[in-house]
Amino acid sequence: MKKNQLILVALGSVALFLPLSNMLGFNSKNEPITAISGTSANFVSATEIFQNKCVDCHSPGMTRMPIYAQLPIAKQLMAQDIEKASARLVITKSMYSGESSFTPLMLARIEGALRNDSMPPTLYLSMHWTDSVNDKEKSILLAWVAEERAKLAWSADTLPTLKGEPIHPLPLQVKLDPKKVELGRELFFDHRLSGDNTMNCASCHSLAKGGTDHAKVATGIRGQQGPINSPSVYNAMYNVAQFWDGRAKNLVEQAAGPVANPGEMGAEWGKVIDTLNQVETYRSAFAELFPNEGLTKATVTQSIATFEESLVTANSRFDRYLRGSAEILSANEKEGYELFKEHCASCHFGPVLGGLSFEKMGRKQNYFQQRGGALTEADNGRFNVTKQENDRHLFKVPTLRNVELTFPYFHDGSVATLEEAVKIMARVQHDKDLSKDEVDKIVAFLKTLTGEYQGKSVSLLKEEDFSVISK
Ligand code: HEC
Ligand code: HEC
Ligand code: HEC
Questions:
Q1: Among 179, 183, 180, which Cα is nearest to 279's?
Q2: How close is the Cα of 79 to the center of ligand 1, in Å?
Q3: What count of other Cβ atoms lies within 10 Å of the Cβ of residue 203?
Q4: Is 242 near ligand 2, meaning CB less than 6 Å away?
Q5: Residue 220 · residue 193 · CB < 8 Å
Q6: Residues 312 and 170: beta-carbon distance below 8 Å
Q7: Whose CA is nearest to atom 3 of ligand 1?
Q8: Cis omega before residue 408 (within 30°)?
Q9: Angle at 117 (CA atoms; ends 114, 121), nearest 5 degrees
Q10: CA-to-CA distance for 98 and 149, rounded, in angstroms?
Q11: CA distance linking residue 160 with residue 432, whole number of Å
C-alpha cells in the first residue's frame, strides 16, 4: 500500500469510532433527485444507485461529506479523488433526473468500470463497505446501459437482443453519389497530386494493406522518413476528427494536408490545380459535378473525402454475428469478445471500435519509459493541438476494424504483432498482465473484425486490384 493509502485507511478506522450519526452526517442540501416520469424502471433504479454510490466522487459540488472529510489530509485526498473521477465521468443533476442523457462514451466507460469491478475504488470501499455494487445492482446498471445504446441510430441493423452491445455493425450500403466517388477514387490514385509525380494517397494508404503502408513510419517524397505511423483510410469517416492528434476536423480538411506537406507529397496546391485543370476528363467531370465551383482545391478535397466515405468495410464475421448469425463465432472468439468488453471496450467502442475519443497512451503505466528511446514531438499527441498539459500523450483511440492487417501498431509503429499490442494495452491502460490464453482469445476476437470492400475480404485484396486506375 502507498503512504497515502495507509493514511486514509487509518483515518477510516478513526472515523469508525466517531458517532454513527456524525459519520452519516451528510451535507443536507443534497435531497435525492427523482427520475422524471416516462423514464424506464431500469433507469429509476440506476439513478438511485448512482446517487447512493457514485455521487461523492462523480458529481462535483454535490458531494456528501462525512465528518472525517473535514480532517485536512482526508479533505485533500478526497479532493484529488473527485478531480480524477470527474475527469472521466461527471454525472450532473439533469442526468440523475433523466432530463439529459449519458453520451455513448460515458456509457462505454460505465460498462467497462462495472465489468472489471473497478468502481467504486477499493480504498473507498474499505471505509464505505456498504457502497460496493452488488450483483443485482450491476445487472440493473448493465441493463440500463444496454437500453440507452439501443436508442442510438448506429444500432439500427443489430439483432434486437444485441442492440445493447458496445459495438455495432457497419452499414452494408452507403448512399453516395457514385460519380463523385469515382472522381475521388481517381484523385486518390493520381500521382500528379505530389510534387514530383511519384506519390499518391495510396502510397501510404494502400487499400490492399488494410488502408496503411505496413511501415513503422510513413515515407514521403525523396525518401523522407515521417514522424508517425500511417493510420488506415478504411472507415476513417467514423472518426470524430482526423489524425492521431485530431488536428483536422473532418476528411475534407484532412485531405488538404498531405498534398502540401513538404515531408509527404510535397506539392503546392496552386500548381496541382493548374495541372489537373489541363486534364480534359477532370475538367469535364468537375464541371458536371460542381457546376458553380469547377475544379478547385475545395472541390478536389471534397471529392477525395467522398471517395473515403465509400471505404466502409462492412460484413465482417463479427458484424454478421451482431446481425444474428449466432453460430458464426467460435467459442474462443466469443470468450475473446467477453474479455474485450472487460478490458478494452471502454475506449474501443462504437461502429469502428474507436475513433470517438482521445485517451492517454499509458493511463496506468508509463508507456514511453517502457518503449525506450527519446520522446518525439509526435509522442505529445493531442497536446500539440490544444497546448493543454492534460492532453500530453493523448491520442485519438484508433479503430480496430481490420486490425490484423494494419501492423505495425501504435502511433510510433513500434509494435510488430497484434499479440504484443494487446499485451501492452492491458498493461499500460489497466496495469494488468493478461495471460497468454487471454491474449490469444482477444486476438482471435480481433481477427473477426476484418471486413469486405467491394464484396471481397480486405485481407484478399491485391495491389493489382487497383493498378488499373493508378496513374
Ligand atoms: C471515492 C470516489 C469514487 C466513487 C465513490 C466512485 N468513483 Fe468512479 N472513479 C473514481 C476515480 C478516482 C476515477 C478515476 C480513475 C482513473 O483515473 O483511473 C473514477 C473513474 C470512473 C469511471 C471511468 C472509468 C474509465 O474508463 O476511465 C467510471 C465510468 C466510474 N468511475 C464510474 C463509477 C460508478 C458507476 C460509481 C458508483 C457505482 C463510481 N464510479 C464511484 C472515484 C470514484
Ligand atoms: C507520405 C505518406 C502519406 C501520404 C502520401 C498520404 N498520407 Fe494520409 N496519413 C499519413 C500519416 C503518417 C498520417 C497520420 C499523420 C498524423 O496523425 O499526424 C495520415 C493520416 C491520414 C488520415 C487520418 C486517418 C485517421 O485515422 O486519423 C486520412 C483520412 C488520410 N491520411 C488520408 C490521406 C489522403 C486522402 C491522402 C492523399 C491526398 C493521403 N492521406 C496521403 C501518411 C500519408
Ligand atoms: C484507456 C483507453 C484504452 C483502453 C482501455 C484500451 N485501449 Fe487500445 N488504444 C488506446 C489508444 C489511445 C491507442 C493509441 C495509442 C498509440 O498509438 O500510442 C490504442 C491502440 C490500440 C491498438 C493499436 C491499433 C493501431 O492501429 O495501431 C490496439 C491493437 C489496441 N489498442 C487494442 C486494445 C485492446 C485489445 C485493449 C484491451 C486489452 C485496449 N486496446 C484497451 C486506448 C485504449
A1: 183
A2: 14
A3: 21
A4: yes
A5: no
A6: yes
A7: 57
A8: yes
A9: 105
A10: 15
A11: 34
